[in-house]
């Protein structure tokens, strides 16, 4: 009973009450134009709906633009849906821009030509040790001022014994603690090894807070001069040469020049991006059978930036990372 009453009540208030409907219909029949428009509109909509391309989902928008009748029609599809995201280039793909570092290097020059090539190309045929130290620096330098981090670790001896390198490249040298240590080790083995030390000899902002005495003159920190002095002190001027520029530009140039090494130590910038760039460029300079290694595999700096770079590099190229004390090694 309650249902009937409600039904009646609802009918009474319905906008299309039957009496009104017939009145309206009568009007349309007497004046057919609006009815025809309405029917045409419904048919157009239905036609569009049924002929729409089935490959387009409801949340893709296609816009078509023709600039003139003679130019081809340009069609763009904008996706505004929750579809799975388009696949991004895989990070482990060797051909991904992130993993590509320049073209192939030039043909390797013979190891015996390494020293003369660097002297000619970097120092215009002079030696950085000629007439060293100049009078204006002599009073500022200590006879020996060495400071390093893990610079005498067992890894140096292990790898030098194993590889017996003719050329070593050190990426990040500072005052030459590890370079002079390696020079001593190669000498003990009777090897005639050239060690190229890549460093801009600027250190890093704030390093003087943590490193006692490094001379400074007119705002210029004299890291390179003190490094040269240390090499002189250790009697290693015939086996060690600095290359005082940024690691990225230098590694790239050595690659162009075909200067290669049997052993490469990477120990410059310790944030992920610096380490990533240095490791990738350095590896291009490794001779077949050579070994690349570096310090600070365990350091927490930049959320373990060095380790992330080393591990990613190994993954991209299918290498294994070995750990020797604080150092990582890729053979
Ligand atoms: C940790 S120290 C190297 C220590 C050295 N291997 C040792 O054990 O005695 C890092 C060195 O890398 C250098 N360095 C950092 N980023 C560099 C860059 N982009 N170009 C050139 N040198 C850089 C700094 O000037 C600094 O002397």
Describe the protein.
This protein is of the alpha/beta class and 331 residues long. The chain has a domain at 97-146 and 154-330: Rossmann fold, CATH 3.40.50. 41% of the residues lie in helices and 16% in strands. It contains twelve helices and eleven strands. The protein has a seven-stranded mixed beta sheet with strand order 7-4-3-8-9-11-10, sandwiched between helices. A two-stranded antiparallel ribbon has the order 1-2. Strands 5-6 form a two-stranded antiparallel ribbon. A hairpin with a 2-residue loop joins β10 (322-324) and β11. α6 (154-163) crosses α7, α10 (247-257) runs parallel beside α11 and α11 (272-284) packs parallel to α12. S-adenosylmethionine binds at residues 148-149, 151, 172-174, 177-178, 199-200, 202-204, 246-247, 267-269, 274.
């Amino acid at each position: 009973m309650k249902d009937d009453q409600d039904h009646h009540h609802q009918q009474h208030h319905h906008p299309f009450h039957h009496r009104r409907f017939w009145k309206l219909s009568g009007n349309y029949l007497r004046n057919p134009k609006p009815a025809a428009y309405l029917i045409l509109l419904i048919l157009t909509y239905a036609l569009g709906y049924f002929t729409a391309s089935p490959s387009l989902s409801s949340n893709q928008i296609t816009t078509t633009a023709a600039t003139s009748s003679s130019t081809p029609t340009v069609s763009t599809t904008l996706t505004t849906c929750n579809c799975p995201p388009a696949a991004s280039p895989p990070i482990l793909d060797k051909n991904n821009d992130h993993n590509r570092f320049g073209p192939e290097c030039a043909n390797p020059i013979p190891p015996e030509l390494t020293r003369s090539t660097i002297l000619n190309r970097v120092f215009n045929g002079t030696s950085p040790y000629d007439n060293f130290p100049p009078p204006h620096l002599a009073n500022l330098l200590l006879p020996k001022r060495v400071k390093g981090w893990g610079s005498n670790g067992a890894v140096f001896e292990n790898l030098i014994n194993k590889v017996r390198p003719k050329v070593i490249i050190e990426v990040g040298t500072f005052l030459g603690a590890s370079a002079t240590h390696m020079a001593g080790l190669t000498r003990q083995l009777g090897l005639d090894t050239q060690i190229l030390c890549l460093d801009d000899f600027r250190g890093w902002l704030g390093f003087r807070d943590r490193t006692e005495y490094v001379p400074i003159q007119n705002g210029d920190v004299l890291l390179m001069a003190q490094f040269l002095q240390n090499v002189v002190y250790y009697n290693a001027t015939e086996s060690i040469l600095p290359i005082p520029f940024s690691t990225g530009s230098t590694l790239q140039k050595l690659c162009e020049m075909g200067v290669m090494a049997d052993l490469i130590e990477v120990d410059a910038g310790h944030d992920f991006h610096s380490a990533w760039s240095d490791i990738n460029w350095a590896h291009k300079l490794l001779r077949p059978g050579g070994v690349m290694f570096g310090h600070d595999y365990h350091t927490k700096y930049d959320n373990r930036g060095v380790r992330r770079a080393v591990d990613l590099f190994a993954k991209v190229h299918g290498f294994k990372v070995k750990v020797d004390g604080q150092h990582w090694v890729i053979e």
